[in-house]
Amino acid sequence: MSMETNQENLSKNHQVEQVREVLGQFLDGYTARDISNLDQFMELFYPGEEIELIGIGAFIRGGNEWFQGLSAVRDIIEGDWEYWGNVLLEVEGAKISVQGDVAWLSTTGSIEQTDTHDKALKYYLEQMKELLDDEKVDQDTRLMEATHFGMRWLRERLKGKGYQWPFVFTAVLICTTEGWRFHTIHWSMPVD
Length: 192
Fold this sequence. Notes:
Layout: H1 3-32, H2 38-41, E1 52-54, E2 66-68, H3 70-83, E3 86-89, E4 95-99, E5 102-112, H4 116-119, H5 121-133, H6 139-159, E6 164-176, E7 179-188
Parallel strand pairs: 1-7
Antiparallel strand pairs: 1-2, 3-5, 4-5, 5-6, 6-7
Helix pairs in contact: 5-6
């Protein structure tokens, strides 16, 4: 192995560890769920309106659970912190790739159901109403999506406190002068 290739590998390994550290900071924010630190947490995101966070129920760009721009991403994270259960991410086992100023990662995790699920019922009912009122989507699709959404939340509610819902977490990060920042995040859960 040439000296240049060895240095490139060391540099790439260092970048991978930097991205892993940012993923750890992301998990720390979701673990603490301290709304007073949300603006500081948002510094983990690329400072552009093209950033996206795609939730587990997304199926149409700009529709339910597909958020674009800092303000929309901030709003959904605030809702997650207030209404979601405990988020666990496999930070050390994350597969991270880096090419130049772009990194992408995939990992697994789970959401442990807590008492916040009962607190969130009104919030979820409002989301169902938004699905039903979304005129960008035909009536049959609205009804199907609202019904699916409601059944999913009812099923989760019936599983009870302590149940862990598995998910896959993927993300794209961009290296800025301030360090690695999230550009796109996608949460997905297995179909059940």
